[in-house]
């Protein structure tokens, strides 16, 4: 009897320890985010107060007013342009990456061709190269081609960044769909193309959506390459725009945090919408051999 | 009229040959079963008829027209796949009507024909369900419904029952047979199960290593197998094969036992010929417990090694001429291991195969 009681107690203790560890880890991870959100809604003097003020004494929307150009105080940062740039670049590169990803993923899943394994491996290895390592050569090429500080230049970079991943994920999804379905559709009177659009594409939709969200988030959040390749309001994206809040002697933390929140919100909404697909997408990709 | 003809049809994947030039004519409204062990090329042959595999060589005709280069949709065939291949994102009604919709039929016509097919197969209550909400047998019926709704020239079945449990398989087998009687259409049916082949076929095509080993009605193939391969593949349990040598009017088995050469085979053998005596378990039975008690036979005392009672009959493992053979005991009698019984070999139904080639001595 005592043994079981003891073991039950030790089990309880283990559980408590586990939760405690999880809590501490989550705290460490979430605290910066929380601080950003908090700081977005309060004035600079409270942010910079020593000792730190944890519970905001006053909540204000002034910071947002400041960056979006309404309210009393204004900052000279073209947030609107940055937002448009970010949206155009992220959406366009996502759409292109998806088109290539669907075509590529389908080919890898369904067709046999020469050097298939090698090409696939090459794509995956390309993912292993940190993008920033390529920033110098890319910058030099882009400057010759006149692509520096253009949306097009960044779109091309993001497409190449995202394509290996979208191909990999979408390939996994098409592999899960039995080939017999497309064959049945062809016997039923479809062309190969119709069979793809009417049968295989609808079934792979959640995987394609997941790949799209990943691609969008990568482009939306990317900072390192964008900071190298953009110069002006023609092409600067929101993450790069954050740097505008640092002046020579001062940093406008409140404005920066407000903009950071603006960046996070669309990403958060998107992730929520496709959460279910995202999980399915990740596990699908995970089980394929 | 939808006669299907294969002329010297060859399939190769690179250097690897899978089907080595087969000739076959399937008559209008005939039910033909391609049967053989896995890897014999039967499914590949079916897929070439369907247009899902390129034809490396030879000609395939459907209704007289060469279809080698026609895509599946232009061959007016329908196919039932092993894993059903129902469209998971459509309900049963849309699954059935999909082909008609693609063909541009009017909604009223689609509704009418779907209802007709659903009626034939008893699918009416299931029309609004998705494939995930159906049992294996129901999915199988939907797959068949999708095949008949388009009113094709021929049905192709690719191992349609192998995913079902034994009981359901028996039921669906009967349904397929009934369906063929109702909807008279040419059927090509692929299976590795010799029971399905025997029960369903008008004609059986036994395939082996990409070639046709024998074509015939089920009874022809069962009663007159052309080779040891067909003899052991068709019929369950498989035919016993005992090596021996022809000595005058007898076959001398490995241990010296002599059994007379069956009368009908006397003209096909010569003295000293190495043969295999083929005899089905049903034709080796204890005296008084066999199928046929008249006609020429040989009696021999054998020891029961193992008996598997199956109710009205028992399968008996014993040794004949130094080799394990299976025998049948008919009637609800229990045989005990170690028991010595007098078995009668029904030699009028025995077979002789040339030991060198494996072919029946009757074919040259």
Principal-axes geometry of chain A comes out as: globular
What would you call the quaternary organization? heterodimer
Mean pLDDT score of chain A, rounded?
A: 86
- Termini separation of chain B: 36 Å
What is the 3D shape of chain B?
elongated
First-last Cα distance of chain A:
48 Å
CATH level-four homologous superfamily name of the largest domain in chain A: MetI-like
CATH class of the largest domain in chain A: Mainly Alpha
Unreliable segments of 5+ consecutive residues of chain B: none
Strand content of chain A: under 5%
Q: What Rg of chain A, in angstroms, do the CA atoms define?
A: 24 Å
Mean pLDDT of chain B: 91
Uncertain runs of chain A with pLDDT below 50, 5 residues or more?
A: 284-289
Biggest beta sheet summary of chain A: none
Number of domains of chain B: 2
Number of domains of chain A: 2
Q: Can you tell me the CATH topology of the largest domain in chain A?
A: MetI-like fold
How do the helices and strands line up, and which of them pair or pack?
The complex is a heterodimer of chains A (289) and B (364).
Chain A: H1 2-40, H2 44-47, H3 62-68, H4 79-110, H5 116-128, H6 135-145, H7 151-176, H8 179-187, H9 192-221, H10 224-229, H11 238-241, H12 253-273, H13 275-287
Helix pairs in contact in A: 1-12, 3-12, 4-7, 4-9, 5-7, 7-9, 7-13, 8-9, 9-12, 9-13
Chain B: E1 4-13, E2 16-26, E3 31-35, H1 42-50, E4 57-62, E5 65-66, E6 77-80, H2 92-102, H3 107-121, H4 136-148, E7 154-158, H5 166-182, E8 186-191, H6 194-200, E9 203-208, E10 211-216, H7 218-223, H8 228-233, E11 240-247, E12 250-253, E13 258-260, E14 274-279, E15 284-286, E16 297-309, E17 313-320, E18 323-330, E19 340-346, E20 351-354
Parallel strand pairs in B: 3-8, 3-9, 6-7, 7-8
Antiparallel strand pairs in B: 1-2, 1-4, 4-5, 9-10, 11-12, 11-14, 12-13, 14-20, 15-19, 16-17, 16-19, 17-18
């Amino acid at each position: 009897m005592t043994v079981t009681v003891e073991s039950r107690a030790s089990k309880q203790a283990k559980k408590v320890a586990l939760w405690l560890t999880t809590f501490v880890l989550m705290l460490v991870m979430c605290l910066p985010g929380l601080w950003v959100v908090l700081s977005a809604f309060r004035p600079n003097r409270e942010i910079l107060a020593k000792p730190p003020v944890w519970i905001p004494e006053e909540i204000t929307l002034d910071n947002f007013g400041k960056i979006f150009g309404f309210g009393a105080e204004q900052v000279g940062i073209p947030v609107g342009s940055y937002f448009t740039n970010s949206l155009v670049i992220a959406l366009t590169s996502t759409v292109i990456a998806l088109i290539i990803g669907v075509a590529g993923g389908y080919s890898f899943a369904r067709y046999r061709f020469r050097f298939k394994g090698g090409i696939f491996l090459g794509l995956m290895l390309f993912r292993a190269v940190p993008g920033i390592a390529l920033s110098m050569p890319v910058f030099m090429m882009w400057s010759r081609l006149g692509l520096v500080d253009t949306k097009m230049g960044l779109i091309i970079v993001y497409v190449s960044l995202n394509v290996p991943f979208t191909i990999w994920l979408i390939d996994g999804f098409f592999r899960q769909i039995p080939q017999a379905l497309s064959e049945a559709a062809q016997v039923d009177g479809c062309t190969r193309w119709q069979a793809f659009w009417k049968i295989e594409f609808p079934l792979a939709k959640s995987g394609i959506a997941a790949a799209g969200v990943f691609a969008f988030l990568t482009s939306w959040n990317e900072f390192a390459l964008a900071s190298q390749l953009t110069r002006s309001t023609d092409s600067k994206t929101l993450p790069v725009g954050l740097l505008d809040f640092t002046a020579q002697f001062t940093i406008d933390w409140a404005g920066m945090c407000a903009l950071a929140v603006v960046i996070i919100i669309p990403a958060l909404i998107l992730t929520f919408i496709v959460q279910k697909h995202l999980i399915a997408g990740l596990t699908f990709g995970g089980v394929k051999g | 009229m939808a006669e299907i003809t294969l002329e010297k049809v060859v399939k190769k994947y690179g250097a690897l040959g899978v089907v080595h030039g087969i000739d076959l004519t399937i008559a209008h409204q005939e039910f033909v079963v391609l049967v053989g062990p896995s890897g014999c090329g039967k499914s590949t042959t079916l897929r070439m008829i369907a247009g899902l595999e390129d034809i490396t060589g030879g000609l395939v005709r459907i209704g007289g027209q060469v279809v080698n280069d026609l895509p599946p949709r232009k061959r007016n065939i329908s196919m039932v796949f092993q894993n059903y291949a129902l469209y998971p994102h459509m309900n049963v009604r849309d699954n059935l009507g999909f082909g008609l919709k693609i063909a541009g039929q009017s909604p009223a016509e689609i509704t009418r024909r779907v209802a007709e097919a659903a009626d034939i197969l008893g699918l009416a209550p299931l029309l609004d369900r998705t494939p995930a909400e159906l049992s294996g047998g129901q999915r199988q019926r939907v797959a068949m419904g999708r095949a008949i709704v388009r009113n094709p020239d021929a049905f192709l079945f690719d191992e349609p029952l192998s995913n079902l449990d034994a009981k359901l398989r028996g039921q669906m087998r009967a349904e397929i047979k009934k369906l063929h009687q109702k909807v008279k259409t040419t059927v090509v049916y692929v299976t590795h199960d010799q029971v399905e082949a025997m029960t369903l076929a008008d004609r059986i095509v036994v395939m082996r290593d990409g070639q046709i080993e024998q074509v015939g009605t089920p009874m022809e193939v069962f009663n007159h197998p052309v080779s040891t391969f067909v003899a052991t593949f068709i019929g369950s349990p498989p035919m016993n094969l005992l090596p021996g040598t022809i000595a005058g009017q007898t076959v001398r088995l490995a241990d010296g036992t002599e059994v007379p050469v069956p009368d009908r085979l006397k003209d096909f053998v010569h003295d000293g010929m190495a043969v295999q005596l083929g005899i089905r378990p049903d034709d080796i039975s204890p005296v008084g417990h066999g199928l046929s008690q008249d006609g020429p036979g040989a009696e021999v005392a054998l020891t029961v090694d193992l008996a598997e009672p199956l109710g009205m009959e028992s399968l008996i493992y014993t040794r004949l001429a130094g080799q394990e053979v299976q025998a049948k005991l008919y009637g609800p009698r229990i045989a005990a291991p170690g028991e010595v019984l007098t078995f009668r070999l029904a030699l009028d139904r025995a077979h002789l195969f040339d030991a060198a080639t494996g072919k029946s001595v009757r074919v040259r």
